[in-house]
């Protein structure tokens, strides 16, 4: 028997204990061990029942994702589960921690299920670009009905034990040790002469409007195919005998296994976990982190403060005046009541945070005790330097001084203090208590334990933290600025903002770039353009002023009711603002450009080429350490579709040589903009991919 499964006897019960840390993934050795364990139990004199239980953190976290893409080895999971279900012995699952994907499917192959109250179950395969592939789409609807099963498997959400019991997935919820609970429960079933109860032999559930469900789930997935495919697998199980339904499910699962979406999603899964894994921080202890200061209580500062409070940190927020402080407190209270409504905190915690844990002050001296302070004041170097001068004066020795700047030079900010080793950039994304991304900007002199503390803060706040080097815009905004420029060029040449938004939303972005600009506020881009113009624009660069004119007319996007779109009928009912196209046409005429048509395909290709090229520069220059750091930045901060894995994963899948050939064509039109990243050319010359760089970094 495999050493992943321990076999023991407890009276008439054989217990198969899974030992595959950290999360009992159903690797080949585990599957083989379960098979052999069933064989042994069935041959073991006097055994009447088998109990399957996990050791450590989970029952099973599902199929071993590391085996995906390799040739599957027997016993395959669906066959193993059928074998468990068909056993003449009574088979019971005792669940704790998570039972996900194949893990829940094993439990559904058992005849009875017990769980501890903290257990969570789910079929999250859609998050990996798949559908449940070991009977989940066939067995779960037989227990819960079709609608509940589809809701769980198309959202991939984790269901708590109590709810799962109400749905019919779990027979009993009982507190205690999972193994002992399982033994007691199995014994009670044996004592009551409970029959074997294979789910596959239960009645098929009632049909629903399959096509309607398929279409609505497909639309919700913004181009992601696997959730809608769950509908087809469930439908097959309702319309055909169990074995045929199972075969249909397997076929869809195996087909999805071959898709780019599956590859993109699995890349995202592992990159999300690898992103905080930096060799330079391996043995570095973070500094103490209990009390943080926040300077500025606008939307950003209040969001950062909220995020810190929700992660259990004490917060002192500094504003310039008592009135501004009061407004900041109200913003934070508003954010916290949202968290209360979503069940993230209790009423008691909410009240305690506002009365005891948050302090709003107007005097820098109140920050003398903080472990870390983040400034979120106006984005101008002179203002930042004044703030850092004050912080340098009042903060205790060893306190970390962080800037939330999104563009400015953190080295220059650090140099304005007497302790540059304690200075770091912590770039949050608005709303900071919601958005998952945190760029940790490491300046030349930042100490390693300050970087480690940045990552520790990100972890406590449940953020995806990405290490970035210093440059204009760091990783995310620097790349954003380039692909936005590519979009502006397409507008000058004939595309409309609406065609561009539509093409990119069809590609999978949550919002197109012009809808995003309206949401963020057009005044932000206007301020950046003014700053860059003041610094001096390269005369070879294409420029335009229609967007400035839009701002001059007072159209800043959603907050003023008009930007690229008109929001007078509400934020969702966006319609093109009729003032925009005349401004664009005027600009084209001024520059002597005859507009041409753009297909959606060309829009996506150019936009993505610009994004990938700048990303390659960012990696080549060491601003991002690995391609996956760029991918996670775009995924968690910029609405890049998860199922495409990130821009550099997308580029690998699309094929680097073809993209390079495109860029060389674009370069002929505009050599200034299309300066190809040396790293990109090197990878193509060596026949390598961006993922090869990720692998080399992990080795
Ligand atoms: N296979 C292989 N490794 C896995 C894994 C899996 N299913 N699930 C987690 N891991 C690994 C992680 O990569 C991580 O490894 P490192 O420590 O080397 O980075 C380690 O286990 C711990 O994971 P987390 O850091 O994510 O720990 P957590 O406590 O935050 O979360 C979890 C645990 C809820 C199980 C989470 O890891 C998770 O959601 N895992 C994926 C579950 C899943 O999608 N299962 C379905 C698989 S597909 C399937 O089963 C198909 C089928 O029907 C046949």
Structure, explained:
It is a single chain. This protein is α/β, with parallel strands linked by helices and 699 residues long. An eight-stranded mixed β-sheet has the order 12-11-10-13-14-15-16-17. α1 (28-43) packs parallel to α2, α2 packs parallel to α3 and α12 packs across α13 (322-341). The model has no long low-confidence stretch (mean pLDDT 95). Residues 22-23, 25, 61-66, 77, 98, 100-102, 105, 124-125, 128, 130, 132-134, 136, 273 line the site of acetoacetyl-coenzyme A. In the N-terminal section; belongs to the enoyl-CoA hydratase/isomerase family. Belongs to the enoyl-CoA hydratase/isomerase family. Residues 291-468 form the 3-hydroxyacyl-CoA dehydrogenase NAD binding domain. It comes from Pseudosulfitobacter koreensis. Residues 473-567, 603-688 form the 3-hydroxyacyl-CoA dehydrogenase C-terminal domain. Keywords: Fatty acid metabolism, Isomerase, Lipid degradation, Lipid metabolism, Lyase, Multifunctional enzyme, NAD, Oxidoreductase, Peroxisome.
């Amino acid at each position: 028997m495999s050493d992943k499964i321990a076999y023991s006897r407890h009276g008439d019960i054989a217990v198969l204990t899974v030992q595959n840390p950290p999360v009992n993934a159903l690797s080949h050795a585990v599957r083989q061990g379960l098979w052999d364990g069933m064989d042994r139990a069935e041959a073991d004199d006097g055994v009447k029942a088998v109990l399957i239980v996990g050791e450590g953190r989970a029952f099973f976290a599902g199929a071993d994702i590391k085996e995906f893409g390799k040739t599957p080895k027997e016993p395959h999971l669906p066959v193993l589960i059928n074998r468990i279900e068909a056993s003449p012995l009574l088979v019971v699952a005792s669940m704790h921690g998570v039972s996900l994907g194949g893990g829940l499917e094993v439990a559904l192959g058992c005849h009875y299920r017990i769980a501890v109250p903290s257990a969570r179950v789910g079929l999250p395969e859609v998050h990996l670009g798949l559908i449940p592939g070991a009977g989940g789409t066939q067995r779960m609807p037989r227990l819960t009905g079709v609608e509940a099963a589809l809701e769980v498997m198309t959202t991939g959400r984790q269901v708590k034990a109590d709810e799962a019991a109400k749905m019919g997935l779990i027979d009993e919820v009982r507190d205690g040790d999972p193994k002992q609970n399982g033994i007691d429960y199995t014994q009670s079933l044996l004592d009551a002469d409970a029959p074997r109860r294979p789910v596959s032999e239960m009645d098929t559930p009632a049909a629903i409007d399959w096509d309607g469900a398929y279409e609505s789930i497909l639309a919700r997935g913004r181009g992601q195919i696997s959730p809608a495919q769950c509908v087809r697998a469930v439908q097959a199980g309702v319309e055909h005998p169990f074995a045929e339904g199972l075969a249909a499910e397997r076929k869809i699962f195996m087909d999805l296994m071959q898709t780019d979406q599956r590859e993109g999603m699995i890349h995202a899964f592992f990159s999300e976990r690898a992103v905080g894994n930096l060799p330079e921080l391996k043995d570095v202890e973070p500094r103490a982190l209990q009390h943080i200061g926040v300077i500025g209580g606008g939307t950003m500062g209040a969001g950062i403060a909220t995020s810190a409070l929700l992660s259990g940190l004490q917060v002192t927020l500094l504003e310039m005046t008592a009135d501004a402080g009061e407004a900041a407190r109200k913003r934070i209270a508003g954010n916290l009541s949202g968290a209360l409504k979503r069940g993230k905190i209790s009423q008691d915690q909410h009240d305690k945070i506002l009365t005891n844990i948050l302090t709003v002050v107007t005097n820098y001296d109140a920050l003398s005790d903080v472990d870390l302070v983040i400034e979120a004041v106006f984005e101008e170097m002179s203002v930042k330097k004044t703030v850092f001068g004050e912080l340098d004066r009042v903060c205790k020795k060893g306190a970390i001084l962080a800037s939330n700047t999104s563009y400015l030079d953190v080295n220059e900010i650090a140099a304005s203090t007497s302790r540059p080793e304690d200075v770091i950039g912590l770039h949050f994304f608005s709303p900071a208590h919601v958005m998952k991304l945190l760029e940790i900007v490491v300046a030349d002199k930042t100490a390693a334990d300050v970087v480690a503390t940045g990552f520790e803060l990100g972890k406590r706040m449940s953020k995806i933290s990405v290490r970035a080097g210093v440059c204009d815009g760091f990783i995310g905004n620097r790349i954003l600025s380039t692909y936005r420029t590519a979009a502006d060029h397409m507008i000058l040449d004939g595309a409309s903002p609406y065609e561009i938004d539509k093409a990119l939303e069809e590609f999978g972005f949550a919002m197109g770039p012009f809808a995003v600009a309206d949401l963020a506020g057009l005044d932000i881009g206007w301020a950046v353009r003014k700053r860059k113009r003041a610094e001096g624009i390269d005369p070879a660069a294409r420029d335009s002023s229609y967007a400035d004119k839009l701002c001059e007319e007072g159209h800043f996007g959603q907050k003023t009711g008009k930007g690229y779109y008109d929001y007078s009928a509400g934020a969702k009912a966006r319609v093109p603002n009729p003032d925009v196209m005349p401004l664009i046409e005027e600009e084209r005429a001024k520059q002597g450009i005859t507009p041409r048509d753009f297909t959606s395909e060309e829009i996506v290709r150019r936009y993505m080429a610009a994004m990938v090229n700048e990303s390659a520069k960012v990696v080549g220059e060491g601003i991002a350490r690995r391609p996956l750091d760029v991918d996670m930045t775009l995924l968690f901060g910029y609405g890049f579709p998860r199922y495409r894995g990130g821009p550099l994963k997308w580029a690998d899948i699309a094929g680097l040589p073809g993209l390079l050939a495109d860029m060389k064509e674009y370069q002929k039109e505009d050599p200034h903009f299309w300066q190809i990243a040396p790293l990109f050319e090197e990878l193509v010359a060596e026949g390598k991919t961006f993922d090869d760089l990720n692998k080399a970094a992990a080795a």
